[in-house]
Design brief:
147 residues, mainly alpha, membrane, transmembrane, transmembrane helix
């Protein structure tokens, strides 16, 4: 009788362990999907913000270019056109970010860093662990009671 009960308990325990493993795996997959969705949405918001900014900055740049050109012609001083140079770099960067290939180039460079220069990504004093965090918490805590 004890053997049958023990075997039944063992089978039940195995089934429960398999269920817990499957459940934790499913939870991890959902968490990874959620994090990826959040990253994609943040990137989409960044691109949309850049495109919106480009509309306003493009208008400003166009008006400034026309105004500075007219001022340079009227005063016969080509130095008046100098502010167009840095403004054109800003405009080109924003255009490349919103409609060009800047994000693909950044992604490629990030992949290169991950593949070939991973030592640049190491944290000072190594990765965080529970013991180090607990030590810091204990040193900063006013309510810690030693057991």
């Amino acid at each position: 009788m004890g053997f049958i009960f023990s075997k039944s308990m063992n089978d039940s325990l195995k089934a429960q362990q398999e269920f817990m493993l499957m459940n934790s795996r499913l939870q991890l997959e959902r968490q990874l999907l959620m994090q990826n969705q959040m990253r994609e949405r943040q990137t989409a918001m960044q691109i949309a913000w850049t495109r919106e900014f480009l509309k306003y900055f493009g208008t400003f740049f166009g008006l400034a270019a026309v105004g500075l050109t007219a001022g340079a012609i009227k005063k016969k001083k080509p130095g008046v056109l100098l502010p167009i140079v840095p403004l054109s770099f800003i405009f080109a960067y924003q255009y490349d970010m919103g409609y060009g290939t800047l994000l693909q180039r950044i992604k490629g460079e990030a992949e290169n860093i991950l593949d070939t220069q991973s030592t640049l990504l190491e944290l000072p004093k190594g990765p965080l662990n529970y013991e180090a965090l607990e030590k810091i918490r204990r040193s900063q805590s006013k309510f810690f009671i030693e057991k």
